[in-house]
Design the sequence.
């Protein structure tokens, strides 16, 4: 079989590329290792979801897909998808988008020029993107409209240059959000309701958010959460030009010659292998698996993996550190209104004295009681006995929680490699995650922790706790950076259009190509960049 | 997976992990049932639990010459605090402080997670903290 294009991975990036190509008339083979995941599949298990994966998850990957995590002492651990060290993102049609919280951030202009603004710290691979905010702005707008973002247009316009309003008005503020809005305003901090990929009003045949108590980590019960699973992927399929195969696993990308990809070999659910040809191949499997697939596709012409001509593939793995400050207000404020996150500030994303970059701060998504117990208790509160129970009863109605993603300063040593000792169910080497982010990320996180503390304190709390993050590898749902884009093949994997240097018909379209990952949840940037890369492919005649 | 005396010990420690006060406690929420349900899925935990419950029985026997479940709540709490601090008198094949931490965490799961997992009967804990699952 031969196609115009093969798209590997039906997540935030791949779903958009597949739709753009199929709508242009291209015959697309769309390969996804997960299953379709909708509310009818949701079992709503508070211990096995994408917010708390204590013993498992509500989506794939399933058994037989381990990874190896190397801790800071150099010890290797074989980890399963629900273990923290796995750094999983949901595997399903739509990738993480059916179960995410859907914060819909544009990166700021300076997020694309971090090295120019701050200089490059010793030991870091901090660099500028080859493109600017102005290059991305039209595609952010496409993502905001075609997938669907609800936000505060007027207050956001004071932060980002933007040509048009959001597609929908913002979600309502919670009681807590209103209190934190007033606190931020007293501090003189510009604050507003965060943009969300959630229907605040009925739109495109799907209903508005009901404000239910199960949001981030779960499939939406009224399909009001906008991801690629219910927008771009249905658009791709509606053309009749796109064949979506689920529960298939791409084993390798095959090369026609050193400069051209020929197609892929994949296994279906029965284990049968298929080799298919295509004029163009797009890799969009997430920052860990995209890098792994390119490495597992090594050949004579590309002995260290495709795109690894300069030993850059798999490096600069990054996500976000999250400082968190929690406090107790004198009176109950927990109104159980989802999605829950309803106030944020971008006051500290840049321009902070003595640290590089910064990050957005916001209040928290609606928090299940068991998640509060596991993650938010003060260290000095006992975990059992009468005092533990009494604290839960007092604190759960009264807590406020400020957190947010800190822009990471990338390290080339934070990386994905192959572990040839551990194999997946198909016999392929698994991803090995090692290294840490750069220490500058910890300094910025400590600064942001103090700002979170300041905000919680300003709300008039009676008790305040939390601690700044320590040096770790971070990737997880915000994983990025492993196929860095750049103009110089010596320091990057793809060019500015997502095309792998030196290979004319092989593209990457997911968080892998992010040079840096902003002080924001990255999904809208992944989506906007996929619109941009898809458009470039069409301009080139795919 | 447990014999009668191990199960009696399990129920006794669940009651000490989440005791009754103005609100119902761990046994009212059937946290013991949650733990049995959990161990059927996470079978790797069974040896840890059986060894630790047996060691708790030995602690009770050495200190009071009685079964653990027959001790007063205060006597049980002293033993559990000692075990959590690592000051044990019986032989522990499994890490004693780590077991108390594990037990506390898994009892909290049975109490505060959703009732579909086998505990939190009648959403007892959610009514206590003011949470409801609303769609």
Sequence:
């Amino acid at each position: 079989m031969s196609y115009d294009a093969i798209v590997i991975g039906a997540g935030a990036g791949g779903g958009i590329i597949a739709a753009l190509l199929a709508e242009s008339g291209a015959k697309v083979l769309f390969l996804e290792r997960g299953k379709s995941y909708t509310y009818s599949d949701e079992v709503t298990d508070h211990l096995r979801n994408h917010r708390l994966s204590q013993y498992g998850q509500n989506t794939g990957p399933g058994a037989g897909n381990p990874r190896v995590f190397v801790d800071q002492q150099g010890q290797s651990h074989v980890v399963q998808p629900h273990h923290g060290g796995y750094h999983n993102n949901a595997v399903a049609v739509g990738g993480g988008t059916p179960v995410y919280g859907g914060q819909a951030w544009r990166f700021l202009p300076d997020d694309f020029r971090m090295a120019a603004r701050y200089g490059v710290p010793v030991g870091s691979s901090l660099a500028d993107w080859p493109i600017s905010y102005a290059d991305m702005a039209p595609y952010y707008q496409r993502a905001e409209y075609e997938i669907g973002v609800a936000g505060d247009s007027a207050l956001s316009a004071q932060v980002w240059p933007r040509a048009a309003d959001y597609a929908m008005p913002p979600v309502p503020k919670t009681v807590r959000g209103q209190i934190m809005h007033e606190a931020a305003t007293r501090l003189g901090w510009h604050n507003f309701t965060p943009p969300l990929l959630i229907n605040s009003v009925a739109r495109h045949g799907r209903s508005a958010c009901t404000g239910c108590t199960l949001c981030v980590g779960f499939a939406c019960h009224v399909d009001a959460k906008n991801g690629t699973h219910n927008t771009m992927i249905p658009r791709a399929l509606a053309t009749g030009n796109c064949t979506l195969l689920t529960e298939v696993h791409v084993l390798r990308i095959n090369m026609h010659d050193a400069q051209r990809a020929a197609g892929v070999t994949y296994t279906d659910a029965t284990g049968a292998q298929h080799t298919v040809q295509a004029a163009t191949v797009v890799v969009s499997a997430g920052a860990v698996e995209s890098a792994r697939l390119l490495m597992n596709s090594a050949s004579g012409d590309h002995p260290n993996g495709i795109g690894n001509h300069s030993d850059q593939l798999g490096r600069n793995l990054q996500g976000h550190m999250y400082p968190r400050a929690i406090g107790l207000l004198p009176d109950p404020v927990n109104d159980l209104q989802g999605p829950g996150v309803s106030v944020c500030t971008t006051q500290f994303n840049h321009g902070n004295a003595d640290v590089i970059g910064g990050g957005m701060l916001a209040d928290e998504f609606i928090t299940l009681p068991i998640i509060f117990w596991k993650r938010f208790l003060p260290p000095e509160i006992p975990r059992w006995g009468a005092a533990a129970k009494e604290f839960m009863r007092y604190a759960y109605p009264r807590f406020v929680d400020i957190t947010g993603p800190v822009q990471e300063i990338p390290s080339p040593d934070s990386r994905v490699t192959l572990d040839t000792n551990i194999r997946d169910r198909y016999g392929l080497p698994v991803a090995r995650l090692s290294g840490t982010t750069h220490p500058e990320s910890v300094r910025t996180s400590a600064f942001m922790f103090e700002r979170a503390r300041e905000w919680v304190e300003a709300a008039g709390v009676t008790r305040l706790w939390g601690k700044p993050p320590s040096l770790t590898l971070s990737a997880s749902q915000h994983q990025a950076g492993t196929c860095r884009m750049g103009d110089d093949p010596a320091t990057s994997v793809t060019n500015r259009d997502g095309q792998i240097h030196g290979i004319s018909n092989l593209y990457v379209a997911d968080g892998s190509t992010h040079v840096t990952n902003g002080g924001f949840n990255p999904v809208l940037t992944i989506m906007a960049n996929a619109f941009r890369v898809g458009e470039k492919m069409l301009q080139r005649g795919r | 997976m447990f014999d009668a005396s191990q199960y009696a010990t399990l129920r006794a420690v669940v009651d000490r992990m989440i005791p009754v006060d103005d609100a119902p406690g761990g046994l009212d929420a059937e946290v013991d049932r949650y733990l049995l349900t959990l161990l059927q899925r996470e079978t790797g935990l069974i040896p840890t639990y059986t060894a630790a419950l047996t060691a708790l029985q030995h602690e009770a026997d050495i200190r009071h010459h009685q079964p653990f479940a027959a001790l007063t709540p205060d006597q049980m709490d002293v033993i559990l605090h000692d075990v959590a601090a690592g000051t044990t008198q019986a032989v522990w094949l499994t890490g004693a402080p780590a077991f108390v931490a594990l037990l506390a965490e898994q009892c909290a799961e049975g109490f505060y997670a959703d009732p579909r997992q086998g505990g939190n009967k009648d959403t007892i804990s959610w009514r206590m903290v003011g949470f409801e699952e609303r769609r």
User: Anything to note?
Assistant: Residues 407 and 518 of chain A are 5 Å apart (CA to CA).
